[in-house]
Design a protein that fits this description.
The chain is an alpha/beta fold. It folds into two domains: 6-269, Aldehyde Dehydrogenase, Chain A, domain 1 (3-Layer(aba) Sandwich); 273-466, Aldehyde Dehydrogenase, Chain A, domain 2. It is 37% helix and 20% strand. The protein is built from 17 helices and 22 strands. A seven-stranded mixed β-sheet has the order 14-15-16-13-12-18-19, sandwiched between helices. Strands 9-8-7-10-11-21 form a six-stranded mixed β-sheet, with helices on both faces. α2 packs parallel to α9 (225-233), α3 (77-93) packs antiparallel against α6 and α6 runs parallel beside α7 (171-184). The protein starts with 5 loop residues before the first helix and ends with a strand. Bound molecules: 1,4-dihydronicotinamide adenine dinucleotide and magnesium ion. Residues 225, 246 line the site of magnesium ion (MG).
């Protein structure tokens, strides 16, 4: 049966989206609209106004005023906390609706959209975690070093007006990762969601409004990256940019932010490795996790996916068999069907890119074990790609070096621990890694040797209160825990003469 998300769109009563500037919903000054296409069947499901450079300017100035003159940065901890806690309640109350909007955005199957780590529930917990910091953001008193009778103190203060740009793969969680710490520290902000996942962010913005945020503290400017996004990152009244997305746009942000020495936090991509040793607790489980990470849920469209499986030679054949077996559990279809396990590629341009990587893997001599093609029949209307496993991959091949963002796993054999570590670290990226072993000493040794922001030993998680971020070209800075408080604050030193 042909897939259609339109019945759900009607049930959710999706209306044309607008801009949210200075506490008001307004139309775009240019009158242009973006038509959102859901990738499961490439159906048009909704429209929203595109913010022009003039609209972005108005939004930034509203945020500037709210920071320089408004109550938000100076508000007492209890009041600011109450507003964020109100939002936490609203997120729980509306979690099913938000999770469904996320499916309308990016066709992440509902079974995954309602799973804790991608859902409105973790977003609520991210706000809850950061609301808890509000009354604990403190400075130091520093003892006099020598000479004069003087007391040194530090004040930790909000960094100012923040520009936040997020991608389409996890709009609800990434909204929270940026907005919660910015608001908790007393910053004001302008957010540009991805043009491929704006519906859920429009609803999140309504909930922020309902939570009682003063006008101008949070502004939303929907629109494409090269126009709306560019106007935002180059605006001279922005103090800090926080971005999640591709390495190319991250590099561009670093370049343009040099002009005003803007503060920058970047969460970019990855080419994470799992290191599968012969003493893994279960070779089958390790292989299924590796293949599952790239073929279930978002079909490999996640920055932390472990897309290089490094496998000890003695278990290599068993690992490949088990990974191939997992693909039999992959089910495509209507993303609102709870039985569906895996989603399509976000848009035709990305689909073409993924298929190009698969071609390059074949051309460069990797062994295609399974997949590499697209499902036919009713599924052909969407951007689905069959789960793809390449074996005998050389770490210098394109499919081992570049982020594919699709359902492709590259398996690479190794002979000993040193070689595994060397291959894992031989990457421009350093976001995550996995280690599968029952040897406790090896678990520590390898975790310490890996140049990656997060290492999962026999398991992996994302939590609201742990730091998350990348080494090397995977990013700059950390989100979650005290790392995000640091990322949205400046430290001021004050000397008080005592004599
Ligand atoms: P992208 O980096 O172009 O988009 C991410 C966000 O940046 C979107 O909101 C987009 O509108 C915005 N943007 C794009 N150009 C901009 C500009 N000049 N100024 C300001 N904002 C701009 O990512 P895209 O094109 O959606 O995906 C391309 C590749 O990026 C993927 O194949 C994947 O490798 C990587 N990616 C990584 C993500 C991650 O989670 N780290 C998320 C999305 C993409
Ligand atoms: Mg792009």
């Amino acid at each position: 049966m042909a897939i259609s998300v339109l019945p759900k769109r009607d049930e959710l009563k999706v209306v044309d989206g607008r801009l949210f500037i200075d506490g008001k919903w307004v139309d775009s000054s240019g009158g242009e609209m973006w038509t959102h296409v859901n990738p499961a069947a490439n159906e048009e499901v909704g429209r929203f106004a595109i913010a022009t450079a003039g609209d972005v300017d108005r939004a930034v100035k509203a945020a500037r005023r709210a920071f320089d003159e408004g109550p938000w940065p100076a508000m007492k901890a209890r009041e600011r906390k109450a507003i964020l806690q109100h939002l936490v309640g609203l997120l729980y109350q509306h979690k099913d609706e938000l999770n469904e909007l996320q499916v309308l955005d990016n066709a992440l199957p509902i079974s995954f959209s309602s799973m804790y780590q991608l859902s409105a529930e973790i977003a609520a917990d991210v706000f809850d975690h950061h609301a808890g910091w509000i009354d604990k953001i403190t400075g130091d008193t520093i003892p006099p070093y020598t000479g004069a009778d003087i007391q040194a103190l530090t004040f930790r203060e909000p960094v100012g007006v923040v520009a936040a740009i997020i991608p389409w793969n996890a709009p609800i969680f990434l909204f929270a990762q940026k907005v919660a710490p910015a608001l908790a520290t007393g910053c004001t902000m302008v957010m540009k969601p991805s043009e491929f996942a704006t519906l859920s962010v429009l609803r999140l913005t309504e909930l922020l409004e309902e939570a009682g945020l003063p006008p101008g503290v949070f502004n939303l400017v929907p629109g494409p990256g090269p126009t709306t996004g560019e106007a935002l990152i180059t605006h001279e009244l922005i103090d800090k940019i926080t971005f999640t997305g591709s390495r190319a746009v991250g590099q561009h942000i670093l370049e343009v932010s040099g002009k005003g020495i803007k503060r920058v936090s970047l969460e970019l991509g990855g080419k994470s490795a799992s290191l599968n040793f012969a003493d893994a607790p279960s070779i089958d489980m390790a292989a299924m996790m590796a293949m599952g990470m790239v073929s279930m849920g978002l079909s490999g469209q996640g920055c932390v996916c472990q897309t290089r499986a490094l496998v000890e030679s003695s278990i290599y054949d068993d690992f490949i068999n088990a990974a191939q077996g997992l693909t039999g559990m992959v089910t495509f279809g209507d993303p609102f069907d709870p039985e569906v396990t895996s989603g399509p590629i976000i848009n035709p341009r990305q689909l073409e890119k993924v298929m190009g990587y698969i071609e390059s893997g074949k051309e460069q001599g990797a062994r295609l074990v399974t997949g590499g093609d697209r499902p036919a029949g009713d599924l052909a209307a969407g951007n689905f790609v069959n789960p793809t496993l390449f074996a005998d991959v050389d770490n210098q091949m394109k499919i081992a070096r570049e982020e594919i963002f699709g359902p492709v796993l590259s398996a690479i054999p190794f002979t000993d621990e040193d070689e595994a570590i060397r291959i894992a670290n031989d990457s421009p990226y350093g976001l995550g890694a996995g280690v599968f072993t029952t040897d406790i000493k090896r678990a520590f040794r390898v975790s310490k040797a890996l140049r990656a922001g997060t290492v999962g030993v026999n398991d992996y998680s994302i939590m609201p209160n742990t730091p998350f971020g990348g080494y090397k070209q995977s990013g700059l800075g950390r989100e979650g825990g005290f790392g995000s408080i640091e990322a949205f604050t400046e430290l001021k030193t004050v000397f008080i003469g005592l004599s």
